[in-house]
Fold:
Amino acid sequence: GDSVTQMEGPVTLSEEAFLTINCTYTATGYPSLFWYVQYPGEGLQLLLKATKADDKGSNKGFEATYRKETTSFHLEKGSVQVSDSAVYFCALTGGSQGNLIFGKGTKLSVKP
Amino acid sequence: DTAVSQTPKYLVTQMGNDKSIKCEQNLGHDTMYWYKQDSKKFLKIMFSYNNKELIINETVPNRFSPKSPDKAHLNLHINSLELGDSAVYFCASSQMPGLAPYEQYFGPGTRLTVT
Structure:
């Protein structure tokens, strides 16, 4: 079945460091890909999305490009802030019913 | 204006009890979901309803019963609660599955603790 694999955390960075969180997927067909973010004590918020190969999703300085050849959707940010500390989930839409299949999440901590 | 709301936010109860979690969305979406997030933050789909009809029912004990009185509401009733049911439950909604823009909007979650 469809699945998402993302890098194990936690990831600890200093403020203004470069961030990469790796995400690869296995899917039949052409899923849409997402990054969701969960701030402490809160629900999930959509961070960015891409719906077809070579699409680049971007939001709040974060970017990810849908790479069909490497089945990847890595999340990047050039300069992280303390306020970016959260758990990040890579996900894809699985099957015809539209439910999301999530990776296990990567916890990011940014130190001042 | 809250797009997807859930009540209660916290729920502490004893084993064997029956409890319900309510979810409402004001986005006009056709599809609603319940996800379970375990203690390791892993998220998994439980149920999905489209226009009040069940379309996904993953391997979930039949103690869990979703109810959708209308397409804006999807409630989750849990019978005979067990310790292993302790988790955070998220409600979500989206437009028709398989149609752009695909993304789902999540509620704030209900943290269920069974003692």
